[in-house]
Amino acid sequence: LVTEVRLRRVLDSRGNPTVEAEVTTESGGFGRAAAPSGASTGEYEAIELPAEEAIAAARERAVPRIEGQVYAGDQRGVDAALRGADGTPDFSAIGANSAVAVSMAAAKAGADMLGAPLYQHLGGAFRGDSFPTPLGNVVGGGEHAADATDIQEFLAAPVGAPSVADAVFANAAVHAAVADLLAERDIPAAKGDEGAWAPAVADEEAFAIVAKAIDRVEDEVGFDIRMGLDVAAAELYDGERYVYADTERTTDEQIDYIAGLVEDYDLAYVEDPLDEDDYEGFAALTDRVGSRTLVCGDDLFVTNTTRLREGIEVGAANSILVKPNQIGTLSDTFDAIELARANGYDPVVSHRSGETEDTTIAHLAVATDAPFIKTGAVGGERTAKLNELIRIEANA
Ligand code: PGA
Ligand code: ZN
């Protein structure tokens, strides 16, 4: 039984307060986890409250329903208690940040009691034996950096890597190669919130630089590295058009533009190419690009089975981004992954732009046999997950 749930404020990678939870069990199990936080958040995400408020509300409403009431290993029970304590569909009473921290901490306490790694506890005995390919954010802008690219994330996708470790090092090498290419062109660049380079260049130049960086690293490592994007198009859409620094595009033009990019750069992955309400536009694009490219819904689906079901009905995508804090509990997250899988959608587990040293998503990706995980390329809060993946692979 869970004997104690503690909540406190800790720092996230942007220097903002976030919620950390600790769960202790009667038999001595212990788990600790912290909530991440988005900047380009989807309109339909569960609600993040200010950390202090979320902690006070969770202490009052949720903690009494968990302490002495549920087993840490009973993830459905813990998460049902959180849902019941909150009573709203979007965790606006206790905050999805409190909910997800407690949910993840309970999972870790459950794993600790079994003496098993978290991925084993979450994935069970019949888990597959594949490992996720990390998508590395190497150039970015949008809501993650001022005066940089319009497209939020240019990603390296080392699809040919023989191991997670090789893929992780390849992404870091692409990140370094981008720095070299920027220096060669005398383009100064700071880093955005996720550690990607954030140069003040047009998207067209960013494509050229990333493509070249990938070529260089491919030559070194000898396996296939493709490119991916998170367009985060909801942030560009003004209700009528997609507004870029140098041009505007109608929905049809946006679909043509993205389909052209998929072809020109052989994109392995395109996330949120259209607005978060445009299921039809998503479907039209998905129809055009074919199965060589994942069209992934982040702000579109927000890890929510109701929204995913709508998307499945119209063929909106072939992939879903999975962020536990978008929905608030690990049980809801697993439900979204299961629904996706049953309908041929690939789950891609993801960090947020505001992160901590928490490594839960690395275990979640392994537990669910996700083909990809998006968790940056460099920077301590990103390497926490990447290095955890290297360890899991080495010890599996
Ligand atoms: P966010 O960005 O964490 O700021 O929402 C990540 C993403 O859009 O994938
Ligand atoms: Zn996104």
UniProtKB/TrEMBL annotation:
It is an enzyme of class 4 (lyase). Binds a second Mg(2+) ion via substrate during catalysis. Pathway: Carbohydrate degradation; glycolysis; pyruvate from D-glyceraldehyde 3-phosphate: step 4/5. InterPro entries: Enolase (IPR000941), Enolase-like_C_sf (IPR036849), Enolase-like_N (IPR029017), Enolase_C (IPR020810), Enolase_CS (IPR020809), Enolase_N (IPR020811). Residues 128-396 form the Enolase C-terminal TIM barrel domain. The active site is at E194, K323. One of its GO terms (biological process) is glycolytic process. It comes from the Archaea. Pfam families: Enolase_C (PF00113), Enolase_N (PF03952). Its cofactor is Mg(2+). HAMAP family: Enolase. This is Enolase. It comes from Halosegnis marinus. The gene is eno.
